[in-house]
Amino acid sequence: MLSLLVLAGILCLGGAAACLWLIDRRERVLQRRLARRGQTGDPALPTRSVRARWQLWLLARQDELPRYWAAWLLLLPLSGLIAQHLLAGPAGLIAAALALALLVGLQAYRAAQQRQRAILQLPALLDGLARLASVGQSLPLAFGKILDDTPSPLAKMLQRAQALHSAGIELDAALRQVATSYRISEFNLLAAAMKVAMHYGGQPEKLVNRIATVLRARQAAHEELLALTSEVRLSAWVLGLAPLAIGVVMGMLNRDYMSVLFNDPSGQRMLMVVVVLQVFGAFFLYRLAKRV
Known about the structure:
Elements: H1 2-40, H2 50-64, H3 69-72, H4 75-86, H5 91-134, H6 139-146, H7 154-166, H8 171-182, H9 186-199, H10 204-228, H11 230-253, H12 255-263, H13 265-291
Helix pairs in contact: 1-2, 1-4, 2-8, 4-5, 5-6, 5-10, 7-8, 8-9, 9-10, 11-12, 11-13, 12-13
């Protein structure tokens, strides 16, 4: 079992290194392609190409990862080795699986928080666009200037759209692609404002101000909804984490009592049933909390 866990750790590190190399290579290839398109002035960048969409999707996921994300993969074999040393049976594999689920959940939460911060920063960017447009600058030109003063993570997301625009794609189409890649639908409102300003003219600063007002109103309503449903979400967290906490405490207080679940075949079957039921219960509690 220990050799299997060590092999799993080596495979995780090798997979992380391969993923880093592939992501870096694809980003360099995409940047070279964008530079060539921008120099030749060819507007026919494959906006509907499956390969281009996947490249943008990979770049978006790379932006969501923490800086030293490969080091976090060491948690998988490390947790398995510790559990295998303390308990017998399939404890190492179960601990590695739980660590993997924990990492996936933490990354999903981190990505959601990053998207939320970008949405909160968007109204301030729209106010800056409106100010620049009110003094006579076009929205695409103002968009390129205001990115230098935009904080992260919104700046990194919109710089992808600016790179596509520099390669020859219309700015509204580039923003729609970025909205799809980062799963932020609010970028579609900015894309609509860009399309209206570029194709129909008028007074774009008024449209941009109204979009900023709508986004602030939506954010206020969202915060009020979170405050009203906090009790339900807290109950879901307590019910989901209580079995795990009780199991850990009982294992620390009486190892012989809990070792039956890992050493005895019937106990192992019961443990697998408990894990499956816990996963399904956590999923249903998550869906219940999201529906409120």
